[in-house]
Amino acid sequence: MSVFTPGQRWISDGEAELGLGTILNCDQRSVTVLFAASQETRTYSVRQAPLTRVAFGSGDRIAAAEGWHLIVDDIEEVDGLLVYRGETDTGEPAELPEARIADGMQFNQARDRLLTGQIDRNDWFDLRFRTLHHHHRTEQNPALGLAGPKIDLIPHQLYIADEVSRRHAPRVLLADEVGLGKTIEAGLVLHRLLLSGRAERALILVPDNLTHQWLVELLRRFALEVTLLDEQQSQAHGEANPFESGQLILASQQWLFANPHRQAQATACDWDLLIVDEAHHLDWTPSASGPGYACVERLAGRIPGLLLVTATPEQMGLESHFARLRLLDPDRYHDLSRFRLEEAGYVQVAAAIDALDRLPDDNEATDIVAAEIDDADSQALLATLSDPESADTQRDKARRQLREHLLDRHGTGRVMFRNSRRHVGGFPERHLHATRLELPSAYRRLLHTFLHGDDALDELLVDTGLDYPDVLLYLEATYRALGDDPRHAEPWWQIDPRVTWLLELLTGAGRDKLLVITHDRDTAVDLAEALRVLGGVFAPVFHEGMSLVERDRAAAAFADEEYGSQLMVCSEIGSEGRNFQFCRHLVMFDLPQHPDQLEQRIGRLDRIGQHHAIEIHVPVFAASPMEQLLRWYRQGMDAFSAPHGVGSSLYDAFGDALADAFLDAESLDEIIVETRALFETRLAERDAGRNRLLELNACRPDRAEAVIAAIRELDDDPALKRYLDQALDIFGVDSQDLDEGLMHLRAGPHMLDGLPGLAKGEEGFTATSSRQRALVRDDVQHLSWEHPLVREMMGRILDGAMGNTALALLNHPSIPAGRLMVELVFRTYCPAPRRLHVNRFLPPTAIRVLLDESGANLSSRVSFTGLAKNLRKVKKAVARDLIKSRHDQLRELLTQGEGEAERELPTIIEVAQQRMRAELDDELTRLKALARHNPAVRDDEVQALQDERAALDAAIDGTRLRLDAVRVIVTVDDSTKR
Ligand SMILES: Nc1ncnc2c1ncn2[C@@H]1O[C@H](COP(=O)(O)OP(=O)(O)OP(=O)(O)O)[C@@H](O)[C@H]1O
Q: Does ipTM come in above 0.95?
């Protein structure tokens, strides 16, 4: 066990890039180290601290914090701290206590290991060099973080993920229509932020019934392991804050929203990103916020990144929608009436975008566009576009750019992304099969009671405990609630013809599966019982009253292709967000009252991955309120044909009147006519204004295609297979090639411990680098440069000392035996906080220097690969003796190599700085131009980008080189013993 004293300098074995650490304090159990260069503090267990004491020897040159250097002559230890004495570069005598050594100083591991005879295998050295090379390449790929997930490359999702994850602390509403992949988009954003170091901790809040689906989706598709937290788990942490138990915490909204103590704990943690699924449930009115809204508001006030996810943002009304936007940006969304006004202005912007296509021939179109722009750059583009003399290519480019300007500067796309089926395309048709059934006498009697006037109705509401108009619509629930009535002795399902109708439908469906949704959870339970008793059919039930495990078991029993049940009965809310696209028949046992809920129901089946037309079966009782509701949906808004996104405003306008009209068929006709009129108006508005802009913003095909092309480049990279073969072999992973490009990986007997997904004695996993093959099988992982196993292996090599020294023999006809060469690999080293993601511009970069013993630089004449294939390994003991005997010569060559490499550093820094400036300056110009027009750009975004640029500039400027690895090569003739 090491003895630590505050003030001593140590480096991390695993994270050398943190720079020199200073011991802050130490007790019997733990030691805390400050890595000032990277602004990180780490606490380790004293017993197993992965730290190495930095102790220099005579002749070493040390950088002092003030910028000067000391050549060490003598070392003294005072109270556990070292004091170095020697001379400065200018020959002045000087003293340097270790506390004053520069934080950015590197401890040259490779050099020290070599000179102390710690020699690694030759193939490890090879792998190290190749790892640096591939890491350098892949870190700069613009698709980093989007290429690994096991998903189909769907343009609108990748556009959103790319656009959102580029932003500083993104705060957006992901509001694609039901089933278009919002969970995937949120997962992609999270994955990229994590991989690039821009986020480390995320809290994901989802409805109770979706926790497992998220858990599985994040693991299977994104290889992200999240901690699912509930009350039981939290209690197991005793006094400790359970939200600190993982980097990625997934929790149920119902649990957290109802529990102030846990909320306080969650709020007390540092998070980078908060994701809230099905965010339309966060309700708010000017007079009161729901508990969910209040909780998310508190968290959102402290967490920099926020993704709100909902398919039906306006389901709880425009006010609630506005309030959710306010969670994203409270400065921007503080005035509802102004917000409404702005929305009206989008019509002109959309018209201007459409007018671009009519230029240059249409003068009126020029005026329409001119009225919307006032920047010099946009005006210049318009001039080019309107000029009949401009070349076609020039005009096309100007049109594209102007379109971007209009969308960016005047549109809605900074905070909200909404794709619809209409423009994504490729979705199945929907067929409605409405069946009219005879009203059973018991239900007819109930309806008669309602007609007896308000008093009878009030009485019924009290007796049943139901709300109005539920009491009219869900007659089986009303019947059940009046169970004390002797006329209701039979269970409702004995008298309700929908049950036998359903059994017949099932028989006619052959082997097809049916998803049945009912409004009421007790109805769902009863119905499953009825199917069993009356038809001998087993149907799992799925509702919000069941535990998570029970729900997942039910869904699995339904999903299983071979042995699964043919139908499942769900309650309304219980099934929200679930994936049932393997099924194409939807039975709406009754209808919900809100059009968004109707869309949510259909969305269970009409999702990405649905390959058939969707058959929607609705049984209604003749002349019942439910039949009127069906008419309103069909005739008022074509609710079953395709989502149109305006249902919510129709409900706001007519919901109350409709409820009143259930008992009055004539007024219903009027309501339907008025609904239809408003529907048409809203559709026209949608197409003209905000929704048109939302649509245009939600996917910019050029950018989506560029991202896809970058992903494909990584997908098709032949180097991955070669690299994997070598790395797996060295790490001791057994790999077996299977058919169709699949491979099975399993821990070999000597595998290095702790590789993800592999443990000795266990099965291992099957994987493929083919995206398509991985997608068709749940049990097959997608192998890519972003796969956790590949990243772990690369990380271990780059962060550790593995393979950073080697010695090999070279038999070359023209070089006499006994000559020495050194192959030095230097690596750029740029201490900077992870959140800056400096690697995008300057990933660790290798500089290779090959020197012969006279000091001649052979690097450009002899390539790494050319040399490597002629080298022979040598026994470790022989290697050690060779090193010992050439100690002084090696020291000199190492120092000379350093000089050679240093000469290349300024160019590397300059190129990186140019790349950084080009990209960030562009982004800054865009953001500033945007901010002038579009209040959706937050001030802190512009400031953050400016700060980021300055910090990156300084960090890149401070880039140093360190010797990463060294291979000594000794020439031999054939007779030399190995
Ligand atoms: N790119 C993709 N590749 C493969 N499968 C996908 C992709 N995008 C979506 N899916 C699948 O389509 C289904 C719908 O996606 P997802 O759950 O993300 O949609 P959603 O918009 O969140 O739905 P909802 O509105 O119901 O919450 C899921 O089963 C998902 O796994």
A: yes
